[in-house]
Specification:
- By secondary structure, the chain is of the alpha+beta class.
- The chain has two domains: about 5-40, no CATH class; about 40-175, Nucleoside Triphosphate Pyrophosphohydrolase.
- Helix content is about 20%, strand content about 45%.
- The protein has helices spanning about 80-95, 150-155, 160-175; strands spanning about 5-15, 15-25, 30-40, 40-45, 55-60, 65-70, 70-75, 95-100, 100-105, 120-125, 125-130, 140-145.
- The strands form four sheets. The protein has a four-stranded mixed beta sheet with strand order 7-4-10-9. A three-stranded antiparallel beta sheet has the order 1-2-3, with no helix packed on it.
- Strand 1 (about 5-15) and strand 2 form a beta hairpin.
Length: about 180
């Protein structure tokens, strides 16, 4: 069954997001008001080194008051390509510059509420370029054994859906 969006009006906006109120028609003809969050594209990047370790950030999210492993990520700036944004975010947040980036996947973490497309990239190498410019983003940056990813996800140590999906995909690519 398909819901039909008959139109939206903006109820709030800033440089990162817009909140709209949509007039939605259900398949049976009923209407409902549905809030929609419209976000700019997000680009994410990590690297897997020759020891099959993946570069991750250990960070606190105040909204959920939770700690967990994440991949470097951020909003794509106007006129910036997805891969360029992913590489920039990885450098700024980890202090590591990725080698050639490969597209891993695009996910929509909460498509029932928002249109936040997260474009995930990875590299088979990275070069340390110095202390992270955005060191406030995380408590630490570590190379974590990729073989531990399924257990980290199962224990809830990777709470972000975008990172969990990306890490499980990388695990599958490297270990079958």
């Amino acid at each position: 069954m398909q819901w039909t969006n008959l139109g939206e009006r903006t109820v709030y906006e800033n440089q990162w997001l817009r909140v709209h109120l949509a007039d939605v028609e259900l398949p049976d003809g009923r209407h409902l008001d549905h809030y929609v969050i419209r976000l700019r594209p997000v680009a994410m990047a990590t690297a897997v080194n020759e020891r099959n370790e993946v570069l991750l950030l250990w960070r606190h999210r105040f909204i959920t008051d939770s700690w967990g492993w994440e991949i470097a990520a951020g909003v794509v700036e106007d006129g910036e390509g997805l891969a360029a944004a992913a590489a920039r975010e990885m450098r700024e947040e980890t202090g590591w510059a990725p080698g050639r980036l490969h597209r891993l996947m695009t996910v929509e973490p909460a498509n029932g509420l928002m249109d936040a497309r997260h474009h995930v990239f990875w590299s088979q190498r990275a070069e340390y370029v110095g202390h992270p410019e955005d060191d406030f983003e995380s408590s630490r940056r570590e190379w974590v054994p990729l073989k531990e990813v399924p257990e980290l996800v199962a224990r809830g140590e990777v709470p972000a859906a975008n990172t969990a999906a990306a890490l499980l995909m990388l695990h599958r690519l490297r270990f079958g």
